[in-house]
Amino acid sequence: MERNPRIQKAYESILSHDFERAIEWFERAVAEEPDNAAYHHSLSITYARSNKLAKAVAHAEEACRLEPEAVSYALHLNTLRSRQLLQEAEKKLHEDSPQPAEAARLLEQAVKMDALSVEALLMLGLAYGKLGRYKEAAETLGEALRLDPHHKEAAELLEEYTNRKGNEE
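RE: above sequence
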């Protein structure tokens, strides 16, 4: 059982769904024990849940620096970095002058970092479709559907790109 009262207060805040308060308590614990990797990791998770990705990454990196052998910390950091790439790619796909090739490159990296990200696979399939790479789009969307068989948008895009792929052959 965690003995630090700040950490206890942070978890109580999480149980009350008050993530901003939890962040405050975790920050206090980190300030008190800056070399405690577990505190940085918990703060990172809470920042990520609050959609504060840059701060989540910074604390995940610190947790990994403090305990480089901790596999769970490294996996968490990869997931966060994948989310960052996904956000960058989404901007590339939806800006005034879309850049689907650059988005695809970013999304390929995101999928390597987090192969279980249905959202990254969906966006990668979309980017491939925008590039006219329908076979790759269909394969990628098929992988997204293997992870989430009920994902409606992935199923619709898969059908569209499979039809386009078939028309080109």
